[in-house]
Amino acid sequence: MFKCYRLNMEMLPKSSALRRDARHNRAHILDVARQAFRTNGVDVSMDAVAKLAEVGPGTLYRHFPNKDALLAALLVDHYEALDHRRVEIEAQDSDPARVLERWIDALGDWMVAYEGLPEPLRAACRQESPLTPTCHAVTATTERILNAAQQSGVARGTVTGRDIFLGALAIAWASGASLAEDDTRDVLSDVLRDGWLEQK
C-alpha cells in the first residue's frame, strides 16, 4: 500500500511537469513567432522559428503542424481585438453605411497585422486550412453588418459579405505590394465603397 502511494505521488508531479513544459514551450514559440512575423513578415520559415525559439523542429511541429496553424494561433488575439473594435463601432455609429465603412477599415487593419498575411488568408478562402474558421467567422460578421446596411437601403442588395471580405483582402494585399503608393489603400477603399454603396 505504501509503495503504491509513493508511486502515484511520483507519477503525478511528473505528468503535471510535462504539461507545464508543453504549455511553456507553446507560449514561448508563439512569442518568438509573433516577434519574427512582426519584424520580417509571414515568409519567415518554420525552421527559422524553431531556431529562434531554440527548440527542435519536432517540438515546433508537435504544437503547430504547419505555418497556417501557427498563424491561426497568433491571430486569436488579433481576432479578439477586431471583435472589440466592432463592438465600439456599432456603439458609436447608428448610420449603417458608416458602420460598414468603418468595419471595412477595421478589416483592413486586421488583415495587415503581419506583412504577407493577406496571401495565406486568401488561400484559406479557397481550401480548408487552420485559418479557414477565422475567415468564415469574420465573413459572417461582415455579412451581418452588410445586411443591416442593405435593409436600410444604403448598400446594394447584390453584394455579399464574402464580396466585401475578399475586396478588403485584395486592398490589404495591394497596399502591401512593392509598387503600392502611400495612398493606395485609401484610393482602393474608395473604389470598394463605390462598389457596395447604393446609388441614389
Question: Could you characterize the architecture of this molecule?
Answer:
With about 200 residues, the chain is an all-alpha fold. The termini are far apart. The radius of gyration is 22 Å and the shape is elongated. The protein has helices at about 1-40, 45-55, 55-65, 65-90, 95-110, 120-125, 130-150, 160-175, 185-195. Mean pLDDT is about 85; it is low at about 1-15. The protein has nine helices and no strands.
Pick out its properties:
200 residues; mainly alpha
The quaternary organization reads as: single chain
Which bin fits the share of residues in helices? Answer: over 70%
How would you describe the shape? elongated
Residue windows where pLDDT falls under 50 for at least 5 positions = 1-14
Total strand segments: 0
Q: Radius of gyration, rounded? A: 22 Å
How would you concisely characterize the structure shown here?
The chain contains nine helices and no strands.
Secondary structure elements and their pairing?
Layout: H1 2-40, H2 46-53, H3 57-63, H4 67-92, H5 96-111, H6 118-126, H7 132-151, H8 161-176, H9 184-196
Helix pairs in contact: 1-2, 4-5, 5-7, 5-8, 6-8, 7-8, 8-9
